[in-house]
Amino acid sequence: VGMIAGRFASGRAAFEADRNHIHHILFDRTSLKGYSPLFILLGASAFFAILGLKIDNIFTPAISAIVFIVTGLLFLFLKQKLSFKAY
Q: What single string gives the DSSP state of each residue in the chain?
């Protein structure tokens, strides 16, 4: 929803394609080729899923929610640092 709203706010078509997705950023800003970005994203997803399950089992729901929010904000920060404006 965020990307669609951003495109709409900047005057572009809501469903217009761009290269501001995490897999395109990995292709464009690193030397990764082929299926490497896929395997990196799958590995990161598995890691964070296991980490989330461990955190949920160890801590209270409130702390789990805080860790979830902080991790999401960290992801957005890193994506913003790596991304570029294609237009």
A: -HHHHHHHHTTS-TT---S-SHHHHHHHHSS--TTHHHHHHHHHHHHHHHHHHHHHHHS-HHHHHHHHHHHHHHHHHHHHHH-----
